[in-house]
Amino acid sequence: MAPVTHMLAASLGEVVACLIRVPAEVVKQRTQASPGSTTYHMLLTTLRQEGIRGLYRGYSSTVLREIPFSLVQFPLWEYLKTLWTRRQGHTLSSWQSAVCGAVAGAAAAFVTTPLDVAKTRIMLAKPGTTTASGNIPLVLCEVGGVEGFPACLLVPSPE
């Protein structure tokens, strides 16, 4: 039952955290993609052009990326800590727990990178485009069709 508890707690935490994280991420990514622009200017531009909804563009795709990440990372982290503890016969030190967390985080990132690619593309898309609509499968098919499948595994750098 512990893995299910960890999964539910992590998922709920991500849904709530995204209420704050997504607007910050939208402004950050758009500022990075617009050289010479300031964060404040990008915030105002987004609000002027798209309203408050513009700050939450990509909310669903972010949540749909964060939940699987958490569903992999936290139970795997707990499992690795338990395994290591049993092997050495005593509680882990903080550095050992950190190693377990790093391995679990790397595994979760590997699994969810295509969702991160879709989230980034959705947040940076021009308003009114099909990409901006937030349809994750459509965005991934477009990326894979135009740029090839490996592009789904690489988060684009702002250009």
UniProtKB/TrEMBL annotation:
<keyword id="KW-0732">Signal</keyword>
<keyword id="KW-1133">Transmembrane helix</keyword>
<keyword id="KW-0812">Transmembrane</keyword>
<protein>
    <recommendedName>
        <fullName>Mitochondrial S-adenosylmethionine carrier protein</fullName>
    </recommendedName>
</protein>
<feature type="signal peptide">
    <location>
        <begin position="1"/>
        <end position="17"/>
    </location>
</feature>
<keyword id="KW-0472">Membrane</keyword>
<dbReference type="Pfam" id="PF00153">
    <property type="entry name" value="Mito_carr"/>
</dbReference>
<keyword id="KW-0677">Repeat</keyword>
<keyword id="KW-0813">Transport</keyword>
<dbReference type="InterPro" id="IPR023395">
    <property type="entry name" value="MCP_dom_sf"/>
</dbReference>
<comment type="similarity">
    <text>Belongs to the mitochondrial carrier (TC 2.A.29) family.</text>
</comment>
<comment type="function">
    <text>Mitochondrial S-adenosyl-L-methionine/S-adenosyl-L-homocysteine antiporter. Mediates the exchange of cytosolic S-adenosyl-L-methionine, the predominant methyl-group donor for macromolecule methylation processes, for mitochondrial S-adenosylhomocysteine(SAH), a by-product of methylation reactions.</text>
</comment>
<dbReference type="GO" id="GO:0016020">
    <property type="term" value="C:membrane"/>
</dbReference>
<feature type="repeat" description="Solcar">
    <location>
        <begin position="1"/>
        <end position="83"/>
    </location>
</feature>
<dbReference type="InterPro" id="IPR018108">
    <property type="entry name" value="MCP_transmembrane"/>
</dbReference>
